[in-house]
Design goal:
single chain; mainly alpha; disordered N terminus; TPR repeat; Tetratricopeptide repeat-containing protein
Length: 181
């Protein structure tokens, strides 16, 4: 009798344990054109609206389970539950290791918690998968500056602004002598 219950438990639990994230994590076909539109936007408001579309692309997880973990982490972060957000993003990265936004969001939590080394590691993973992710690029700049690596942070900020010249962090760029922004 116990074996029958044990078998039923194992059988019912198996699909949950075997659940995996889809292997092909990709952005919409028009994402490259969107990034070009952001780069060439004529004003901050146009860039802001276009940037919101890029964030929607990045924050669309590959399946419902991954989306639930992402949404939970972002909700916890917005209510300052950084430990809960960290836990959700850890679960997201473990479940869906090819999904770049999981790493980017985990990096943001690490940054907010002052764990700059962990933030940089996750930012680099994000950028290896999405080189023009202006959120990760600006995050790298801010992280480096918070680590006291001001020159490297300024260079990283220049990279971010090359992708999105209207980033709010643009005011942090110190112009080189004899140049204008």
């Amino acid at each position: 009798m116990i074996m029958r219950y044990l078998f039923a438990f194992v059988f019912l639990a198996a699909p949950v344990a075997a659940e995996t994230c889809p292997a092909n994590v990709s952005l919409p076909a028009d994402h490259a054109a969107l990034m070009e539109d952001i780069r060439t936007a004529p004003d901050p408001e146009t860039a802001r609206l276009l940037s919101m579309r890029a964030w929607e692309n990045w924050a669309t997880a590959p399946d419902a389970h991954a989306q639930g973990l992402l949404d939970e982490g972002m909700s916890r972060r917005s209510s300052y539950d950084y430990a809960g957000a960290q836990k959700a993003f850890e679960a997201l990265v473990e479940y869906c290791p090819d999904y770049p936004e999981g790493y980017n969001q985990r990096a943001f939590i690490a940054f907010l918690r002052g764990d700059y080394e962990a933030a940089l590691a996750d930012i680099e993973i994000t950028l290896a998968r999405v080189p023009n992710h202006f959120g990760a690029l600006s995050g790298r700049a801010l992280t480096l500056m918070n680590m006291g690596q001001f020159t490297e942070g300024q260079e990283a900020l220049k990279e971010a602004l090359a992708v999105n010249p209207w980033l709010p962090e643009r005011h942090m760029l110190i112009p080189e002598p004899g140049t204008e922004l």
